[in-house]
Design goal:
Strand order of the largest sheet of chain A: 3-2-1-4-5-6-7
Structural class of chain B: alpha/beta
Order of helices and strands of chain B: EHEHEHEHEHEHHHE
Number of helices of chain B: 8
CATH topology of chain A: Rossmann fold
Oligomer: heterodimer
Order of helices and strands of chain A: EHEHEHEHEHEHHEH
CATH architecture of chain B: 3-Layer(aba) Sandwich
CATH superfamily of chain A: NAD(P)-binding Rossmann-like Domain
Number of helices of chain A: 8
CATH superfamily of chain B: NAD(P)-binding Rossmann-like Domain
Largest sheet of chain A: 7 strands, parallel
CATH class of chain B: Alpha Beta
CATH architecture of chain A: 3-Layer(aba) Sandwich
Largest interface: A-B, 35 and 35 residues
Distance between the termini of chain A: 40 Å
Helix content of chain B: 40-55%
Number of strands of chain B: 7
Helix content of chain A: 40-55%
Shape of chain B: globular
Distance between the termini of chain B: 40 Å
Largest sheet of chain B: 7 strands, parallel
CATH class of chain A: Alpha Beta
Radius of gyration of chain A: 17 Å
CATH topology of chain B: Rossmann fold
Strand order of the largest sheet of chain B: 3-2-1-4-5-6-7
Strand content of chain B: 5-15%
Shape of chain A: globular
Strand content of chain A: 5-15%
Number of domains of chain B: 1
Number of strands of chain A: 7
């Protein structure tokens, strides 16, 4: 008997990386999944982003666990498209208990576009806001509580990111997500909807493990979390973030709200 | 189906009742054997009745009912020799150590300018030095295992924010955070993790007593200070509409941190506080 039997989770950025891992891990605990992803490229992002095939693979893995999944291509910057995807998912799977605002980009490049700042604010902060705003009216109306986890970063607590527009924007957005979480946690507490953030150190996913990121970190190794993790591990796995999220959204954490949870191999504490 | 801490051994201080008993049971439910200590006696400056040897025996009974092994010893965390002897004996019997729940704690109150010397000292000795003693005794055993480990220190919301009338408790609980942070850095190369949990009010004998009721409802006559009325007062501390959390809610956090699900979580303060720090 899984910890999330009968629950429905709305997950953004679910085509691959951490998002896919969350979809699979929550499904393994008994949840059904509404999965969205842009499945497309943003110009200022120097590594290849997810594709429709990636989202299809997530669907395959969730269905392989005998859970239901509704997947749709949607851009978290597009309020109308996000709302349509959410409502279609709810129509098929039922009301949502869990929201994972995970979709994010890291437009960090030695030859960055000017748009890197605005793009990362739009996806990593406004996209998170859009995701929560889309989901909470129905959760509040349903009156059965729920749990929301926003994906921040060590860059949401620490002063890391370097001088580029993308790096500064990434830190600003990830810090901003914490502010959102705190206000949402206070606002939604009377409705028993819990809100928290997770703060990964570098995670072994396509966002980090790619030529562009490798080149970017080579120019300034101090930007790499891997150098400063306290535990002797260069990167954590996506499942480590998923495991923290499973605990947070389950009844095991029924009274946990308004907190930041680093899953960061001791990076933040060491600074 | 293997438990989440199957085959591991956990050292729990303050295990006779309350949160400590709950941790022992929860970890045992998930497959761990337990080394348990408790003063099982009174500290003079503490204004409520503390645990007894019968309480510790009850914890033993409940762990054994889960078909797990437990070595329980009456020991005061202020006495390093006693802590070490009890833990060494437990490890000798159970074969290893993986988890430490440094939970033993006391509560008393008074304004900072009028706290008695002994009241302050007892609080630091139990709630801070006692926590260090548990970690100090455990570290050689954790290192000897070569498998890493997980140390969870029980702090409080008072470890991260101020509370009037408990400067000594607040100082000790803040101090536990400092200790945790250093342990996390010192022990990281051995993959031994250290984190702190920060409960809001927990439904145990530490709060459900006449002295604590007086602290939270000094404006009411003693006969008006019922559990129901006090519950309303405690609820105002929390963002979620609840009076207090249950010991098991803290145990679930301890279990998560002790397990491999949290294998890369270290140096973290983890409130289980119904949003009270944020309110």
């Amino acid at each position: 008997m899984g910890k999330l039997e009968g629950k429905v989770a709305f997950i953004t950025g679910a085509a691959r990386g951490q998002g896919r891992s969350h979809a699979v891990r929550l499904a393994a605990e008994g949840a059904d999944i509404i999965a969205v992803d842009i499945c497309g490229q943003i110009d200022s992002v120097p590594y290849p982003m997810a594709t429709p095939d990636d989202l299809a693979e997530t669907v395959k893995e969730v269905e392989g666990l005998d859970r239901r999944i509704f997947a749709r291509q949607a851009d978290v910057r597009d309020e109308a498209g996000l709302k349509a995807a959410f409502e279609a998912g709810v129509a098929e799977l039922g009301p949502v208990d869990i929201v994972l605002a995970n979709a994010g980009i890291a437009p960090l490049s030695r030859h960055e576009e000017h748009s890197a700042w605005q793009d990362v604010i739009d996806v990593n902060l406004t996209g998170v806001f859009n995701t929560v705003e889309t989901a909470i009216p129905s959760m509040i109306e349903r009156g059965q509580g729920g749990a929301i986890v926003l994906t921040s970063s060590t860059a949401g607590i620490n002063g890391i990111g370097g001088p580029s527009r993308g790096g500064l924007g990434y830190a600003a957005a990830k810090h901003g997500v914490v502010g959102l979480m705190r206000v949402y946690a206070n606002n939604l507490a009377p409705h028993r909807i819990r809100v928290t953030t997770v703060h990964p150190t570098g995670v072994r996913t396509p966002m980090v493990v790619n030529d562009a990121m490798g080149e970017f970190l080579a120019q300034d190794p101090s930007l790499s979390n891997a150098m400063a993790n306290a535990l002797p591990v260069d990167m954590v796995e996506a499942v480590d973030i998923s495991n923290a999220i499973v605990w947070l959204v389950s009844d095991d954490a029924r009274y946990v709200t308004g907190i930041t949870v680093p899953v960061d191999a001791g990076f933040t504490n060491k600074k | 189906m293997a438990g989440r801490v199957e085959g591991k051994v956990a050292f729990v201080t303050g295990a006779a009742r309350g949160q400590g008993r709950s941790h022992a049971i929860r970890l045992a439910e998930e497959g761990a054997d337990i080394i348990a200590i408790d003063i099982a006696g009174q500290v003079d400056s503490v204004p409520y009745a503390m645990a007894t040897p019968d309480d510790l025996a009850q914890t033993v009974k409940e762990v054994e009912a889960l078909d797990r092994r437990i070595v329980a010893t009456q020991a005061d965390v202020r006495d390093y020799g006693a802590v070490k002897a009890a833990l060494d004996d437990g490890v000798a019997q159970l074969g290893r150590l993986d988890i430490v729940a440094a939970n033993a704690g006391i509560f008393s109150f008074g304004k900072a300018d009028v706290l008695e010397e002994q009241t302050w000292q007892d609080m630091i000795d139990v709630n801070l030095t006692g926590v260090w003693h548990a970690a100090k005794a455990a570290i050689p055993h954790l290192k000897a295992g070569g498998r890493g480990g997980s140390i969870v220190l029980t702090s409080s919301t008072a470890g991260l924010m101020p509370f009037e009338n408990m400067a000594h408790y607040t100082s000790a609980k803040h101090g536990v955070v400092g200790l945790m942070r250093v342990l996390a850095v010192e022990l990281a190369p051995d993959f031994i993790r250290a984190n702190s949990v920060h409960p809001t009010s927990v439904n145990t004998d530490m709060i459900q007593n006449a002295a604590t009721y007086e602290l939270f409802a000094p404006d009411l006559a003693p006969e008006q200070r019922t559990k129901e009325v006090l519950g309303e007062r405690f609820q105002t501390l929390n963002a979620l509409p609840i009076k207090w959390v249950e010991p098991r809610d803290i145990s679930n956090a301890v279990l998560f941190l002790a397990s491999d699900e949290a294998r890369y979580i270290t140096g973290v303060t983890l409130p289980v506080d119904a949003g009270s720090l944020l309110k």
